[in-house]
Design brief:
Oligomer: single chain
Strand content: 5-15%
Shape: elongated
Low-confidence stretches: 112-134
Helix content: 55-70%
Order of helices and strands: HHEHHEHHHEHEHHEHEHHHH
Distance between the termini: 175 Å
Number of strands: 6
Amino acid sequence: MLNIAKDKLPDEFKDEARLDSLFSPFRSHTVNPRDWDAKISSWKYLISLYCSDSDVYSFNLALLSTQFVRNGRPPSCLGVVVEEMVKSGDLQYLEDFLKESPKTWGGWAADLLVKKPLSWSFNTIKSSLFANESNSERTYVHVVVIRREAQKLFSAFPGKHRNKVINFSEFLKLIGKDFSQAENIKLLLHHLVREWKVDVKELKNGSSDFESFLVKVGEQNKLVPISEVDITAYTLEQNEKLLVKSVEELEDQVALCLMEVKTHLLKGHRQLAKTCLKRKHEIEKRLTHKANALHNIQVLLERIKDVHTDAAVWRSYKQAISAFNSTIQETGLTEDSVEDTMNKLADMLDVYEEIQGAISKPATSEDDDLEEELAELMKSEEKPSDTSGDLDEQLAKLDISGLPQIPSPNVSLKEAPIS
């Protein structure tokens, strides 16, 4: 039976006749070229589906044959399919895949290529001598599946752990994989290293592969390679974890000694209580040393983080200065040009004031003539008021004694004498 979930198989592969034709051997002299291409395409799809579904990215022909069994027999055409996939670029020999890297993989690559039953050199020689003969022990990698799954891993990696050095064990925990999948995950990492999205480094400290193999996943568009500062910070963080654990254990021992001292005192065993107190004092001294060392490491880690922050600020300052210089050069902005512009502006403002003054003046001098005429009229209005007194004096001087008397109002006009 096929080692693939049935619900993931397309309907065309659920047909019994179709499966029988797939498991039948190739006979190129009788098979129609279209049938040949269709059969190869079907097997490519099934192998790709198996690798993705099982998280298997490297295999040999013997292992692959055990995953595709029908009616108790493996497909006799699988060797031809694998070689065709190598020619088309879907599959690649493991040694060729590992050679395409800017870095070496140390012990892991040696384990895959040297410690396996058939070494790299033997496989290469045999493949050159027997080009048409399929090697059931030779290891292949599915390049297409690796490329796809590596991109998924990179996109799903937690953002807060990017551009931070962690060991391989922590990396597996972050992506939800166990140690049994380590070799397949390293193939994905190898592809990401080739694309400059991940950087790796192996420490020569004698620890296990999961602890000495360091991984640094970059941002979406930027990877900062592992530096000596990163390794130093990683080492300090590991020492910090060890010291924290040691301090916790020593504090537990101090608490246990106190309980023993109280127990001995309750029983009246004063010498035993004193012995426990002495041991407690020794533990407290060790605890003090560990706590001081832990404090020093934490201070160093903070200083390293501050250096990174200060370096980032310094780079931003440099970028700002460069931007200012570029802008000044592009616009021609200088102190002399600005001062010249301001002087010209002051001159223009003075000219503008003069223009405004000229615009506000009356168009003719008629207003002055009108003012003079109004003044003369005012003088002429004042003359009658000045001669009223003279008229009174003249009236007083008049002699009215020779004038006839005013007739009485009771006398009619007929009775009035006529003089």
